[in-house]
Amino acid sequence: MYYNVLELKDVIENESAKFEKKVLMENGDSALVAIALKKDEIIDAHTSVCDACAYVFDGEAEFHFDAEKFKVKKGEILMFKKEQEHKVLALKDTKFLLIKI
To answer: Which residue in 58, 65, 94, 98 could disulfide with 33, CB within 3.0 to 4.6 Å?
Structure first.
């Protein structure tokens, strides 16, 4: 997929009734991943081995870190440090890019 121009809306579909992900690039622990969630779907608590950011390009989601939660909507980006346990709740059908560095 290198040297391609991609339209984000076409990178991943959320046609199925569950979480979908598509790895676009990967190098060791670093990666660029497209993720699609249906409304009210949850990605259970987990941690990342890398610092990361999530760029929401469609929909709206809540990212929960311990006692804090952040609502991230289309066009916004959330950055967070590695090893912080978090979970994701889709407030609408949502698509986002996860960038792990």
So the answer is: 98
